[in-house]
Amino acid sequence: MDLRFTLAGLIVGLLVGISGVGGSSILAPILILFLGVKPIVAVGTDLLYSVPTKLLATYVHWRARNIDGRVVLTLVIGGAPGVVLGLLTVAAVRSHMSYADFNAAARHWIGVAILLASAGALAAQFFARRKGAAEEAPPRDVPTRAALIATGFVVGWLVSLTSVGSGSVTLPLLMFALPRVQLRRLIGSEIAYAACIIPVAAAGHSLAGDVNWRASLSLIVGSLPGAYAGSKLCSRVDENWLRPAIVGVLAFAGSRLI
Q1: What is the pTM of this model?
Q2: Cβ–Cβ under 8 Å, residues 88 and 255
């Protein structure tokens, strides 16, 4: 057990539970910049650690009735093929590069994905201010369903490629597509969606040998209590200061990796 990884898992798990964003986007640069993990191994390790963390957060949000099953199912319809395509993309790129070049490329991919995530978190803050307090079932029209499937596909591909995006990218897109659904239910739904696709991506990277199992175990030990506590605090924390802080950290971390 490595206490450095355990502390990192605790901090990131807390953020995931509270806001649904910032998990892999913050953990990936911590692993690469501060804990010396190779970029592609950081992706696989991040994904594996995320599996129990997301499952626990999903359970807590389900108990609190913060999950919309129809939204999650529609996202998974697009996300499942997106994850597979992402794993195939990684395999195709790695077959044409040396290990060192592949890690350098992965570092840049992660940096770009994190900057995208920071923009997504900023967009989420913007949309949150426009949302009303009323909650209603998500619209069933074709454009909304198509948008959710497309969102699931893009996020699935991005997660397999970089481990980043399951929350930071999904949440603002959901807020745009479903403006009248309560933010709390959107957070719970995107966490549940991530819990569906991340195990598949983690399994693919594990089979490719891109996982540091000791680091993942240490991260999990810290992240589980963090995710549980964060999910309990979700309705009590003032998002007006939390999200801008996350955006700033994400933008800084992404710029260091590009």
Answers
A1: 0.79
A2: no
